[in-house]
Amino acid sequence: MANAEKPDYADIRRKFTALLGNAAARARTPWETKLASLIALLREGNSKISWVGAYLERPAGSGVLWVDAYQGKVACLEIPAGKGVCGTAFARGEVLTVPDVHAFPGHIACDAEARSEIVLPLHRNGSLVGVLDLDSHEPAAFDANDAAGIGALLAILNS
Q1: Residue 120 to residue 134: CA distance in whole angstroms
Q2: Is residue 80 within 8 Å of residue 87, measured between CB atoms?
Q3: What value, to the nearest 5°, has the Cα angle with vertex 18 and ends 15 and 21?
Q4: Using one digit for the tens of pLDDT, what is the confidence trace for 113-157?
Q5: Which domain holds residue 24?
Q6: Fewer beta carbons within 10 Å, N or C terminal of the chain?
Q7: Helices in the chain by DSSP H: which ranges?
Q8: Do the domain assignments include residue 3?
Q9: CA distance 157 to 77
Q10: Is there a contact between 63 and 80 (Cβ–Cβ < 8 Å)?
Q11: pTM for this structure?
Q12: Residue 83, strand partner residues
């Protein structure tokens, strides 16, 4: 993260929980709406992000991830499970932090300027449904602190 300020995930978390409101409001708000709001807060609160969005498997079990809510340049529409960073993270069901996307075998370049990426599994009702993808034009922009901070936000998404 050469030129960007470190994101304040605690501040993003405060904003997200305030936006979602109390338990009744949270329960009433559709998951997709909460996800879209989280994506906007991540983009707004993290200057190193060039693109952030969700890829969701549709239909369930198909092995195809389709772009959903996002902020940034126009994205790839579909990504097969097991392909590229997003598809690999989905197939493995684990966080992937890639400091140099050009060195990742089979990287799918939706944005030619992207240099690094972090992808986290998205769960809904306990099932893996897709991935949250964050790209940066900076090399090595993401680390374990980002994985932990974003992971905590995803826990709120599912609460």
Answers
A1: 9
A2: yes
A3: 150
A4: 999 999 999 999 999 999 999 999 999 999 999 999 999 999 999
A5: 9-157
A6: C
A7: 9-20, 23-28, 31-45, 84-92, 144-157
A8: no
A9: 24
A10: yes
A11: 0.94
A12: none
